[in-house]
């Protein structure tokens, strides 16, 4: 099968972190991203009796964030140096949009990096911040 015939990816549908305090995380993600909560809990696939997920959606981008509660979670904080997720990056329209995000995060009191502009290996700008469990989130603009 040639690369031209490979199945296509349309984009990111959802991001699903496991969190230590689901109510705190719901409030934080709704406040920071303006997400709407789907009013039901979702069982874990093949582990239905060990916790649940709450789905938050963004009507503008159509991205969803599924916050997961696991009954056996010992409450350890996220660390990207362990096997698993390192970070997730969300695309924004451009550097001006990153500036708007800086202002928004400042208004909310959310710690963040300065906007970093890179030219290698290609031109991009990035803004980095973390959720209440220290999961690294990035806002990423090409060009």
Q: What's the rounded overall pLDDT mean?
A: 91
Class per helix and strand makeup: alpha/beta
The major β-sheet equals: 4 strands, mixed
- In total, how many beta strands? 8
**Number of self-contained structural domains:** 2
Low-confidence spans? none
What is the C-level CATH assignment of the largest domain?
A: Alpha Beta
Structure, explained:
InterPro entries: Glyas_Bleomycin-R_OHBP_Dase, Glyas_Fos-R_dOase_dom, VOC_core. Pfam families: Glyoxalase (PF00903). It comes from Streptomyces humicola. This protein has 143 residues and is α/β, with parallel strands linked by helices. The chain folds into 2 domains: 60 residues, 2,3-Dihydroxybiphenyl 1,2-Dioxygenase, domain 1 (Roll), CATH 3.10.180; 63 residues, 2,3-Dihydroxybiphenyl 1,2-Dioxygenase, domain 1 (Roll), CATH 3.10.180. Helices cover 18% and strands 31% of the residues. It contains 2 helices and 8 strands. The chain has a 4-stranded mixed sheet, covered by helices on one side. Strands 5-8-7-6 form a 4-stranded mixed sheet, covered by helices on one side. A hairpin with a 7-residue loop joins strand 2 and strand 3. The model has no long low-confidence stretch (mean pLDDT 91).
